[in-house]
TrEMBL record:
Keywords: Membrane, Transmembrane, Transmembrane helix. It comes from Microlunatus endophyticus. The chain crosses the membrane at residues 20-43, 49-69, 106-125, 131-156, 204-224, 637-654, 660-680, 692-709, 784-805, 825-847. InterPro entries: Glycerophosphate_synth, TagF_C, Teichoic_Acid_Biosynth. The keyword Magnesium does not apply. Gene3D superfamilies: 3.40.50.12580. The keyword Cell inner membrane does not apply. This is CDP-Glycerol:Poly(Glycerophosphate) glycerophosphotransferase. Pfam families: Glyphos_transf. GO terms for cellular component: membrane. One of its GO terms (molecular function) is CDP-glycerol glycerophosphotransferase activity. It comes from the Bacteria.
Amino acid sequence: MLPAEAGPQPTALRRFAGGLVADLAIAVLLALGGLAGVAMLGSAGPARAARWLGVVALAVAAAATAARFPRAADQDDPRESVYRSAAAGRRLWIVNGFGGLGRFPGLRTAAVGVAVLLGAGRYLATDDRAGFVLVTIAAAGLVLTIAAEPFVVRLLRLPAPYAVRLPGLPVLPARIGYAWLPAHLGQVATIAVGATAVAGAPGWVPLALAVLGAVPSAAVILKVRSRRQVAARIRTRLPGAMAGYAPEFVLYTARPDDASYQLTMWLPYLRRAGRPFVIVTRDELPSEAIAALTDLPVVCCRAVADLDLIMTESLRAAFYVNASSGNGALIRYHQLTHVYLGHGDSDKPPSYNPTHAMYDRIFTAGPAANRRYGEHGVLIDPAKFRIVGRPQVEVIRPADPDRLAARVAGARPVILYAPTWKGHVSETALSSLDRAEAIVAALLDRDAEVIFRPHPFSYDDPGETEIIERVKQRLAADRQSSSRQHCYGPAAETDLDAFGCMNAADVLISDVSSVVSDFLQSGKPYAMVAPPELASDRFVVDYPVARAGYLIDHELTTLEAVLDDLLVITGDRLATGRTRVRADYLGDFAVGGYAEHFTAAVREACDTPAPRIAEVAESDDGSTAVSRDTVRRNLDSLARAMSTGVAAVVALAAGVDHAVLLGAVAATIAALVAVLTPLTRRVAADPPPLDGARMIMALAAAAAAASGAPPHWLGPVLLPMIIGIAAETTIRSGWSYPGVIATGLAGLEVPASSRRPWLLPVTAAVTSWLAWPAMIIGATWPMLVIAALILAVLIMVAVATARARTRLAAALSAERAVPAVLAEFAPQFCVYFGSGIGAAYQVGMWLEYFRRLDRRFVIITRALPMQAEIVRLTRGTGIPVLFRPTLRSLEEVVVPSMRLAYYVNNAVRNTHLIERRELIHVWLNHGDSEKPACYNPVHAIYDKIFTAGQAGIDRYARHGVTIPAAKFVIVGRPQTETIIPASAPIGSVQRPTVLYAPTWQGPYADSRVYSLPVGLQLVDALLERGARVIFRAHPFNYRFAADRRMITEIGARLAADRARTGTDHLWGEQAENRLSVEDCFNASDAMICDVSAVISDYLAAAKPFAVVAVGRTEAELIAEAPAAAAGYPVAEDLSDLPEVLGRLLGTDPKAAERDRMRRYYLGELPNDRAAEGFLRASAGLLETTGPGDTPV
């Protein structure tokens, strides 16, 4: 485990305090600007200086807000990072991203309100009605522009197909380099509108300035729209372009960031294979980065379904350069040969990652790589390995005799120091960079010339970057003060590649890194720095490449002695051992033609015939296109922000002009939207806060009070509302910080977020609105009530701020306590749910059997909606449910007591936990069927695969998926224990009940095997035979509008028949929620379905069933789904339905075949003992010590 970091708590709390102070300071400036405008309403002469003070306050506030705009996108946000700034932005030190676009909308909108208050007051003081109207329109335009920014951001983030250098494709316009400009120019426009209006410029001037302020946003929208139109044409033509180019393989990366080096290291050798190929990425940032480095075709497939567009008949193989969790999206295409390359070979955990088991072939450099998996408990079929050497090292030269002679003559040694990076998790925290300064100092003391080449990923960490910069400065200073020619910075990291650095060096100092394995090719000596608290003998066992190197402990106590050995010119005592280790790690190949072994293997992979059955497996992540509901919610949110903002501006203008009735109407409209939005929460999970509109509402009420009849004191009293509303942003951040989201674990309690998050915004909006009726009444007491309410709002803000900070501190404290609390709870296994859909039924079907194991366990989720769903599922059981959003946070849940991890679906993020080799990873699935999801090659990554019967094992082999037999365990199907077998032949049932249970359509068009489109015809045929129908739709089909309509139509038909005949049909809520699947089985006498898990489960009922052959002939259905042979296939066009129903509900000639098929699919245990196999197998695994000690 990584030690608990002391940094996050004070950092987050400092960010909370800093954000609060900045928001309040800017709000105070805006309130002062508003005060200047309110105090001088109706005055022309003496008010001039005060108004200009207001403009100064406005300008400082707007500039301070702009100063808070980020100058670079978050490095973990590739969708923003991809928007690199053009020259103008770079001159302002803006690297990339959206700048202030969509950020600080409340303060920016309030600044517009102050500008119009100052300007409108000036125009009215000089009786310039036209100027007054025009500046109001200008303000409304600026408010609309700010309100539209979240929409613009969403537009910029939308996926756009990217493809270059394929025949027949249009050229995608360059991405805009000024995504940052709208917000910056909007701030300038706000200041300019206020200043020019106060200066008395004609009204068209501020209006023109407001229009200019909106131009960048309009330009962004038009540019993105134009680019997306071209992208749409690219998407349409992409299949044809791929077919025209006819690639034989793809080089694939699913990493969202720029890791181009992982691709470029393979390009020269893949080219040598002489086969056309395409580089495929899953994000635009890496696509554009690699496209700038090569002349090869590059395609970005952002959506999983977009991968369908690149599948051509010529495509035979896919090569992978990393173990990204997104690789499974392409692995599902069984017609390809999937080859893992990696991007370096070392003894680090990434080089024996269990996820490599999903590939058809694993290209390794030497025998050491093959052994490495088994030595760490990773079981992979040996036939998948192919030793091909490490082609990149062909350029590494052995020590030059002339160079050795020069050293003997006194030349300085050249030492390459190449530390690795710290990795994502503790297992890969093997870097020596924290010792870099001491190591480099020791080398300088030896009069050495240093080549310093840190890992490029180290620059992603600020702390490591600081160390790197200090080392560079030390080397630069030494270079100036001596004649030593050190190499560092771009000279070592860009001008030279890693192999160039190796050739320039006499010796190497590194740590656990592929640099060491590659350096073996040179035959030169090297030293390795051990990780902290790891003894030398253990270090050699864990990292065998150290056998041929000199070992430096992490505390550097052995550094001087090692340098004595390392820098010896003759008599290197480890030279002979390095020769043996070199053959073990890099292959026992001759230097001449070394890389040809790799290129031959590439050609062989491309020439491998596609399997006979090539279907596409599916993912359980529910990755589909942006839904209409999402679009509707976004547009609804946009409409609310715009309408409220404009109404508030109108109320402000009316208040300045003392048009109380008009102002009251506009304020009422703004208040209604501002109140109803947080109360109804219809817009989205996080409705727009409308802070800016509510601040302008306070300004409007203040202006109306100041411009009307005495007393005027209410106007200034209303202005502190701006400060209170400004604090709400920070308060929301404190309430929304997730921290630890857990149930059932004492010690991880975090104070709940506010139960009434609407209270502050609603109270503020209502208070501002009530000022209008108070002014209409004209009495003093209503104004005193308003003043009391304002005080109450400010007190509420102070209390809420304190509570939000307290909650934030508690959340941070609980986050640090997770390892200790879990260790004390001592769970023996976990149930991991990495998907974003389906938790209730996928976990729910196994929950009872997890509980019967009578061991402590925890359920881990990766999506908040699924966390809530599982919490509801487990309510009252005491089962802990823990939300872990990030890879690093997931690491903390693996405590010493934990032995097993169960997986119930094909979620992409399953790979995040699979890498933890302390656990035995068990694949359960959530059903057993013949769909591609049940023979997905990704299942090879698990240590054990629990199958119901032999059919589950044979299914993989039948579809060409190779998994070692030792991974399979037949455990039966526990869920069938509640299924009651038929007590009499179907022919003896007077009025049979037929269950119709279609599966869902699946996320991909070419894997749809559902019968719902013909469901109404099936139901009609059953009704004509007088059958009672139970219609149970798959829950996932409710995600699709067309399927919902079909489900509704079937329900209406059953309702009509029930009304006409009195038959008690079941559907909807009754069949899908009140009854379980097993209840439906027991209530039925026969079933009609398609290819899904209900077939194998229904075998336990010993009742007849029919299967609709969707997208295939009946013969193909039986070949692909053997269980269908025990049922009655139905043609997709239902042409044989009458005959099938006669057998299904009458003669039933396949009763004996069903019994044999039941044992094949469900095992030998009878229904009432169906859970025994799972419980027995799980108990056995719980007694083991890890993946390498698992029973067969």
